From TrEMBL:
Residues 254-549 form the Penicillin-binding protein transpeptidase domain. It catalyses: Preferential cleavage: (Ac)2-L-Lys-D-Ala-|-D-Ala. Also transpeptidation of peptidyl-alanyl moieties that are N-acyl substituents of D-alanine. This is Peptidoglycan D,D-transpeptidase FtsI. It comes from Idiomarina abyssalis. GO terms for cellular component: plasma membrane.
Length: 577
């Protein structure tokens, strides 16, 4: 029997080693991949997710235009209009070698009134993808840029603030910067109100630029409109007359305010000199100040009606009383208070007609400092008017324990305190409104704001009739308005010098009410530093009041209340105070 032996196969040398090596390598590779995936997905997913989003996610802003500002009748005072902005992609310019065409870049530089090298320097950094070349160009400039067809130079639509009334309402409305943010006036004060919130859309695109997923969308919040109490017709009238008066009187500046008696709304607030907010090339800081609320002066004789009102309120005098002003001067504490001449015995009305310093001094000394200061405070002096405009001054109203008799005397004829044009208008508005004091407002009101009764209506009416005589036959004849009964008071004050004391510069003022039978408006005019010999309130400021009131009565359709007086008053200047 044959025995078959199976020959044992022998494995090639190294086979098992190679097998284990391969298994180990595969296991290692898979381990690295798993570890990498875990790192990406679990430990640090944000960075890679961000990179992916940067390649596929896009966001688009839904722009909103700045809110408009309109007057009480809906006339636009500030609007946003679409304009073109020129920008460039330096990387695209480099790729197309666009800088090689020097003629086109020279033409573009001349369009922007720039040096060509300066323009080219903006686009010579290839790492940038966006630079502004010129913001908010004119339509003709935008068309020319299109015609040049420079590779890498593009146009984008933005909005620009435009002010249809120009310099007429500039101090009140203010202006914005090139990015549309408020810089002055109401544009700054109500910047957030006018700005709104842009909307935003986030979506994902594929490699071919197609939208494959909408991620989120936030609706835009539209800005709000400001509706002012200003009547642009009255505003334009006041500005025109004030500007002419400042030029005629060779004055440094001037201000005028027109108030609605019943509501406390500001119908006009103007200053001269002014500025054009549509032309930023020649902006000067001294032209941009809203002097009607920022600049305060000693109000002079315009305070005398309040002295008489205080005497009536405190029972020290009655409307029919008289004051002996002989011999036309007083000596108080070594100082002299005097009138231009000896007026003798004067009624309270005649004290105002002749603007007698001696008369009001005697009334104030009899009254005492506390009642007088209280009346001034009740009339709004030493406090804000409630209008809440930027830079509003509260003036100066002293609050001391001791007052000399001479200080009381000067206080009675408007020295030793200071007030703005708006504050003075507020005080006369209280008189015109029967002693009712309400906050002033620059916004249109559907109904009057709450008011406080600070003076007796009978006393304010009596004082208003006294002031009517001032216009009829006193120091303010130039303030007369044909067909209307008006009341008011002049004021002329010397300005203090920097080192103390008074200099040779004056402020001419007039504050008045119209019509007396049913007061509708209060107008205050301030002419600062007249350069002529006619620097009195009755000659420099009163004629401006007359012209503003005459045109405003027609614009507001207020019926005449003095038809008998139809004389046409020739433009002239005269009188003293």
């Amino acid at each position: 029997m044959a025995v078959t032996r199976r020959k044992k196969r022998s494995e090639p040398a190294g086979t098992r080693w190679r097998f284990y090596t391969a298994v180990f390598l595969l296991f290692g590779v898979f381990s690295v991949l798993i570890a990498r995936a875990a790192y990406i997905q679990v430990i640090s997913p944000d960075a890679f997710s961000l990179q992916g989003d940067m390649r596929s996610l896009r966001s688009a802003s839904v722009a909103v235009e700045r809110g408009t500002i309109v007057d009480r009748n809906g006339r636009e005072l500030a609007v946003s209009v679409p304009v073109e902005t020129v920008w460039a992609d330096p990387k695209r310019i480099a790729e197309k070698d666009a800088l090689a065409d020097e003629r086109r870049w020279q033409a573009l530089a001349e369009t922007f009134r720039m040096n060509r090298n300066e323009l080219v320097s903006k686009v010579d950094d290839e790492s940038k993808r966006f630079v502004y070349l010129q913001r908010k160009v004119t339509p003709s400039e935008a068309d020319y840029v299109k015609q040049l067809k420079i590779p890498g130079v593009y146009l984008k639509t933005e909005s620009r603030r435009y002010y249809p009334t120009g310099e007429i309402s500039a101090h009140l409305i203010g202006l914005t910067d090139i990015d549309g943010a408020g810089q002055e006036g109401l544009e700054l004060l109500y910047d957030e109100h006018l700005t709104g919130t842009p909307g935003k859309r986030v979506y994902r695109k594929d490699a071919q630029g197609r939208v494959v997923e909408e991620i989120s969308q936030t609706d835009a919040q539209q800005p709000k409109q400001l509706t002012l109490s200003i009547d642009q017709r009255v505003q334009a009238t006041a500005y025109t007359e004030l500007k002419k008066a400042v030029r005629y009187n060779q004055a440094t500046s001037g201000s005028a305010v027109v108030l609605n008696v019943e509501t406390g709304e500001v119908l006009a607030m103007v200053n001269s000199p002014s500025f054009n907010p549509n032309n930023r090339a020649e902006l000067q800081s001294f032209r941009m100040r809203n002097r009607a609320v920022t600049d305060s002066y000693e109000p002079g004789s315009t305070m005398k009606p309040l002295v008489i009102l205080s005497a009536l309120e405190n029972g020290r005098h009655k409307a029919g009383d008289s004051i002996d002003t002989s011999p036309g001067w007083l000596r108080i504490g070594g100082r002299r208070v005097s009138d231009p001449r000896n007026y003798g015995e004067l009624s309270l009305t005649e004290v105002l007609k002749h603007s007698s310093n001696v008369g009001v001094t005697k009334i104030a000394l009899d009254l005492g400092i506390e009642p007088l200061l209280q009346t001034y405070a009740d009339a709004g002096f030493g406090n804000d008017t409630g209008i809440a405009l930027l830079g509003e001054s509260i003036g100066i109203l002293g609050d001391r324990r001791r007052w000399s008799e001479f200080e009381i005397a000067t206080l009675s004829y408007g020295y030793g305190l200071s007030a703005t044009t708006l504050q003075l208008a507020n005080a006369y508005n209280i008189i015109a409104n029967g002693g009712l004091k309400r906050p002033l407002t620059i916004f249109r009101q559907e109904s009057p704001l709450p008011a406080e009764q600070v003076f007796n209506p009978d006393n304010t009416r009596a004082v208003m009739h006294m002031m009517e005589e001032v216009v009829r036959d006193g120091t303010a004849k130039a303030a007369q308005v044909p067909g209307y009964r008006v009341a008011g008071k002049t004021g002329t004050t010397r300005k203090t010098k920097t080192g103390g004391g008074y200099g040779d510069e004056y402020v001419a003022l007039f504050a008045g009410i119209a019509p007396v039978s049913d007061p509708k408006i209060v107008v205050v005019v301030t002419i600062n530093e007249p350069g002529t010999d006619d620097y009195y309130g009755g000659t420099a400021a009163a004629p401006v009041f007359s012209k503003i009131v005459s045109q405003t009565m027609r614009l507001l359709n207020v019926a005449p209340d003095n038809i008998e007086d139809t004389r046409v008053r020739a433009a002239g200047f005269g009188g003293d105070e």
